[in-house]
């Protein structure tokens, strides 16, 4: 009970203080209301008594506050003149602030500044009057008369008094209202400039109309050209021929102020409007679309038509120039409120975001602007703001603010563009559009491997479908083959019957490690073939093979050579594979990432868990090209990109793409492809019936068989040791056989290949598959031999 009473005492004290402030506020507001009512209804008139140095108010029955109101109004007007009216308003404002519980220390300071401003008004209003009668004051009251006749006029004169009082009034206004007068001056200058431009435009337009009327009234001789000129129109002056882009405007249109060439701050860079997307059949030669899919069989394969994709809507979001300029002004005022006098140099609207290029003042650190991203998002009413500080090649900071209405980037806009159609690369990927609205494509052959990560629902699966569709639009099955690993069994199943696949989509995580091991074996086999031919990469090898085909020659084995296709391995969810067999998957991925580029094998790995136990340091070091979608935290962003920024993305395909060899990521709005479009593309490819076979993505028996000629001399001793102890580990072999870790690991691998022990199973110990009876059988067979 004692503790409860001690806790209740501060609550009671706080409640009592709150009641006291409310009562005080009500009393102050009542007093201010009485003051204002008495002043508004006061009837001027009084008699001066020189014996006692004061006046007596006349009876005023019309005063709203009665006799007391008459006395108060007469006394206030006698003291401060017209300054009594703002004084009553100050009392009202103080009462309201006390009632609302505002910070009294701040308001006391502002109240004193306001009283000082009233005193300045009283003094200035009496300075100009030079009366012989010192009591004949009008506007400033007794206070103004004393200030004017005893302080200002004798010491500063008329002009000096006005200048000094004006400067002090500006200082008092700044203290009372927090108004930035430099901003007001800039706004006034801009308004004056606009008025001047409008007046000049009106004058020029009227002058041009007068000249036109004068020219119409003047008779014109017949022109020898006749057809080229019309009556009433003068010919183009020299240098304004009808060349390219030399359209002439009428004078009234030419001199409109809104279309004048005068520079406007900030400048607005309008995005390019997307042109109509044509199908490749309309503007490409037939041999580009129809290529030999299999030189051996003579089959012809046609890449899918761009017309299978959905058309973007006509028009789109129109750019409102006035709204962009208003947003730029609002951004400048928001920065000023945080103590940074930045200036917006250029505004660039994009399909999803708008970039404001802000030039910070000298001496302002870039990190100070970056730290204001959340505060600026609140001030601009934006979902999130990403700040690029600084913009490469410019002395400006890029502030990326989401649009109120975002546009969808359709895949047809990218695939049907000139950059995608004219590129000779068969591994070109259509990623989307930049923040400026320009199509963006990337060559997988130059990456050479791609890591994709992002939260669920951020657009990762759509991006993978866009990448696959880009390869299908660009290459034949003889040029690019695909290996798809989809542990989720949903995303990539629609591509099962595409002839580009080397094997059906792998959905079992345990078989995925076999598929990666097969790819490693294929990589080594290709290196051997390149070494026999004497070339360094797959491009040179295919050129050599095509030369042999043209000349009708065979290879060293007497067989007809065939070009090697590129192989793209797509893994939709790396986290499931890392949970099943982390060591095998990581080793295979690292070997492929380090060596597979030269032989035309490329990896595209995606995961929705951007954590360090999934995207390990070894994997990330071998994937220089990365795509980050929206993530939950800065830590996840650093895990993917080694920098922050992905946590500020908007989702729905908004990504940061880090090209290989570049320090800063590029923001891209990912292209969108619907499931219906994917089905149409797959159906169009299947309708051709390309006769391509698949392979079994498992290591061959002869490749995995153990060669007894390469058996370690300590193999039999290790075999007896493992069977006797029914335990298999590298540390056991190290201790008992006194060998190093590498040799002990090789012995463990040999025991696994011969079926003595089971495979690696995470943190669990390997299972010994045989007992001591196996030793007796083995030695019995050896004695019989």
TrEMBL record:
Domain FtsK, chain residue ranges per copy: 437-638
InterPro entries: AAA+_ATPase (IPR003593), FtsK/SpoIIIE/SftA (IPR050206), FtsK_4TM (IPR025199), FtsK_alpha (IPR041027), FtsK_dom (IPR002543), Ftsk_gamma (IPR018541), P-loop_NTPase (IPR027417), WH-like_DNA-bd_sf (IPR036388)
Entry annotated with the keyword Cytoplasm: no
Family matches, as Gene3D superfamilies: 3.30.980.40, P-loop containing nucleotide triphosphate hydrolases, Winged helix-like DNA-binding domain superfamily/Winged helix DNA-binding domain
Cellular localization per UniProt: Cell membrane
Superkingdom per UniProt: Bacteria
Keyword annotations: ATP-binding, Cell cycle, Cell division, Cell membrane, Chromosome partition, DNA-binding, Membrane, Nucleotide-binding, Transmembrane, Transmembrane helix
Membrane-crossing segments per the record: 20-40, 72-99, 156-176
Bias type Basic and acidic residues, positions: 250-267, 275-291
GO CC annotation terms, alphabetical: plasma membrane
Binding residue positions for ATP: 454-461
GO BP field: cell division; chromosome segregation
Recorded family membership: Belongs to the FtsK/SpoIIIE/SftA family.
Subunit text: Homohexamer. Forms a ring that surrounds DNA.
Protein name, per record: FtsK domain-containing protein
Source organism: Handelsmanbacteria sp. (strain RIFCSPLOWO2_12_FULL_64_10)
